[in-house]
Amino acid sequence: MTEPLPGDFGLTKIRGLAGAFVSFGQWFVGDFAPVQHALVYVGNGLVVQAMPSGAEVIALEDASDVVQWSTGLIDLTDEERFEIGVQALCLVGTPYSFLDYVSIALERLGVRPRFIRDYVASSGHLICSQLVCEAYSRAGVELFPGTFPGDVTPGDLYKLLKELEAND
Question: Which residues are within 8 A (CB) of 37 and not within 5 positions of it... i.e. 6 or more apart?
Answer without folding.
Answer: 11, 12, 13, 14, 22, 49, 64, 128, 154
